[in-house]
Amino acid sequence: MVSVTLNAAYLDLGYLLNADLTMLANFTNPNKKVHVDFSSVIIYLYYGSTLIATQYVEPFSAARLQSRFATIHMVSSQVQLPLRESQRLVKQMEGNGVILEVRGIFRARSKLGTILRYSYNLYGRCSVMLTRPPDGIMLKKKCRTKR
Predict the structure, then answer these.
(1) Is-contact 96 82, C-beta < 8 A?
(2) Domain extent for 121
(3) Per-residue pLDDT tens digits for 65-93
(4) What percent of the chain has pLDDT over 90?
């Protein structure tokens, strides 16, 4: 994840979350010998334990040692938050440090020439801290990817 911007976030009735987030994601193939096709990419956005938005990314390929960037726009509308999460969000917005979690599931297929091909899933997970909207810039991030 290169950058994340929290464009808007507010609670209706004190517990219904409306949010607008834009992120620039970097998909990199670090391998020197293998071409990778990403056939399915789904991004999930969480606040605490609550899923607040999902986004599908069109299939794409990454040649050897190639990086690919994608702009991902996520919107949540009237997502009900539990009471504790609503209270925590209000405190985080007042303190200017909103913490969100971005998870991704990537179905990948690697090709070594025309002979060897294998498919696998990758699981990405990033915790990001953002300032309050409308600026909503990324202060910190911690990401990891597992197979």
Answers:
(1) no
(2) 3-146
(3) 898 999 999 999 999 999 999 999 999 99
(4) 79
CATH of the domain at 115: 2.60.40
Sequence-distant (≥ 6) Cβ neighbours of residue 23 within 8 angstroms:
1, 2, 3, 4, 5, 71, 72, 74, 102
Q: Are strands 35-47 and 50-57 parallel, antiparallel or unpaired?
A: antiparallel
Domain count, the chain: 1
For the entire predicted model, the pTM comes to 0.91
Collect all residues with Cβ–Cβ distance below 8 Å to 108 and sequence separation of at least 6. 36, 37, 38, 39, 119, 120, 121, 122
Q: How far apart are CA 51 and CA 60, in angstroms?
A: 25
Q: How far is CA 135 from the centre of its chain?
A: 18
Q: Which amino acid is at 104?
A: G
Q: Which DSSP helix (H) or strand (E) runs through 24?
A: strand 16-28
Whole-angstrom distance, CA of residue 110 vs CA of residue 144: 20
pLDDT exceeds 80 at position 113:
no
